[in-house]
Amino acid sequence: MTSTVRFIADGSWRRPERGSVVLAGSPLTLFSLSKSGQAIAECIERANALPQGHEPLTERLLDAGAIHPIPSDNDKARFSLNTVTAIIPAYIHTSQEAQTLKSLVASCSSLHSTVVIDDCSPHPLPDLGDTHVIRLDSNSGPAAARNAGIALVQTEFIACIDMDVTISANTISQLLPYFADDKVALVAPRVKSRATANTVGEYEVAASVLDMGDAEARVSAGTRVSYVPSAMWLCRTSALRSVSGFNESLRSGEDVDLLWRLNHAGWRCRYQPQAVCSHAPRATLQEFIFQRMSYGESAAQLAKLHKGKLAPVKLNAWQASTWLSVALGMPFVAVGVAIVGGASTAKKLRKFPQLKSESINISVHGTAKSGLTIAHAIGRVWWPIALVLALFSQRLRLLFIATALAPAVYEWWSKRPHLDVVRFALMKILDNASYGAGVWKGVLATRNPAPLIPIVRSSAANEE
Questions:
Q1: 76-283 has which CATH code?
Q2: DSSP labels for 283-341?
């Protein structure tokens, strides 16, 4: 017998020789399959219905981000828009923002209801008809505003929507079927930046921090998609209440904190880019810088609440030794260390003959990826230290320039935005530097250096 449940393999999925070993997920995880497990893997690879008894394996694969659900027709028919209440925090400064809010509320008319939380706005809210409006006595931030709305909701699902987001009923309809999995607490769409006729807007279209890309994912700390912005979330009401909603002590990063607490409580959070909404970019360069700094500033507070999850770099000992040798100007030593590290990985995988040809790829890919991660950290959070060191060493000066420019140029080449390479690279450098300045500001304010300290682990592979 077969079930009606179907899954699709993640882009990381590799099963050499269609055998008994799968490498997939984020971080990359090794799964050893029994005969029945191989039959299940075959169904997943073909997106076919699965045999009965698949749950023990597919649950592990889901949690690892190795597979993703395909909603059935029954799943799509199971939930209606009438089970959703929209919660919209509002802090209105201008009449233009008031009209933006009015348009967003109108776009939510097909839902069960809409609750607008006026976070003590300095400008009057527009006439919103029958919409339930709550005005807070003082400006308390998005976490407190959303919690005030959550307390009033009586529907099964909540759509958390920021005021400057544009959605359609179709956006929510595409997300609802994923709640057929009772463990799913939250599903987020892709948030694309709306194009504007200036450099900031053009950059945001290509490299917005709110856009998590075009590949679906399980959202969890330490994975390819470690968070999704709360610009638009569809949530299970009971799940939000089970973790007491948003942390009101956080003015920024409250969405990251809630996601990670949901994961810790055993819930699943998903990113489904098939559903799309749009978000207004920052209008000026100053607003852009302040936004990025505020994101960075939250890192130190989050690091206190979620120990070990905010490290700028996570490496194994072989990767750390390889790139330290490069930084010290010893390339031949670096090559030797990388070779020994690759041999260590191959030794661990020796009991899986199908992975003989994969061991080199795993090692090379891991070392290269760790190098990109280090380059990213230098240009983003370690740049004040790197800048000082660059003043005293020509080699380090060249390394600093390379780590700032190379990732930006590579991203421009891969995305091919309308923005030219010079402006894109300068915006990317400013983006990273602003975030890093925010991190340092938060570190100094909280006296918590965790967001600056790399983690070096002894094992070279994540195996299961």
A1: 3.90.550.10
A2: SSHHHHHHHHHHHHHHHHHHHHHSTTS--S-EEEHHHHHHHHHHHTT-HHHHHHHHHHH
Beta-carbon contacts of 155 under 8 Å, excluding residues fewer than 6 positions away, are 82, 83, 84, 85, 112, 113, 237
Domain residue spans of the chain: 6-70, 76-283, 314-457
CB atoms within 10 A of CB 447: 7
Q: Could you give the C-alpha distances from 73 to 1, 40, 177, 183, 218, in angstroms and in order?
A: 19, 21, 9, 19, 22
Tokens 């070392």 belong to residue: 367
The residue ranges of the chain whose pLDDT is under 50 are: 1, 460-464
Distance CA 226, CA 212 (A): 10
Please tell me the distance from the alpha carbon of residue 390 to that of residue 374, in angstroms, as a whole number.
16
**Burial class of residue 83 in the structure, from the number of CB atoms within 10 Å of its CB (0-12 exposed, 13-18 middle, 19+ buried):** middle
Using left for φ > 0, alpha for ψ between -120 and 50, and beta otherwise, residue 350 falls in: alpha
pLDDT, one tens digit per residue, over 142-154 is 999 999 999 999 9
The string of DSSP letters for 218-248 reads E--TTSSS----TTEEEEEHHHHHHTTSS-T
Query: Of 378, 375, 379, which is closest to residue 367 (Cα–Cα)?
Result: 375
> How big is the chain by its Cα radius of gyration, in Å?
24
Cα(256)–Cα(377) distance, rounded to whole angstroms?
19
Rounded Cα distance, 258 and 244, in Å? 9
For residue 132, the surrounding DSSP H or E stretch is strand 132-135
CA 389 to chain centre: 32
Which of 433, 454, 424, 322 lies closest to 379 in space, CA to CA?
Answer: 433
Assign 67 to helix, strand or coil. strand
Per residue in 113-150, pLDDT (tens digit) is: 999 999 999 999 999 988 999 999 999 999 999 999 99
| Global model pTM greater than 0.90 | yes
**CA 64 to CA 217: how far, in whole Å?**
10
Distance CA 426, CA 109 (A): 42
DSSP bridge pairs for 7: 69
Strands 184-193 and 132-135: unpaired
In the block, tokens 């497990």 appear at: 37
CB 162 within 8 A of CB 255: no
Q: How far apart are CA 401 and CA 460, in angstroms?
A: 29
Which candidate, 214, 229, 253, 205, places its Cα nearest to that of 427?
205
Given a contact cutoff of 8 angstroms between Cβ atoms, the answer to whether 217 and 67 are in contact is no
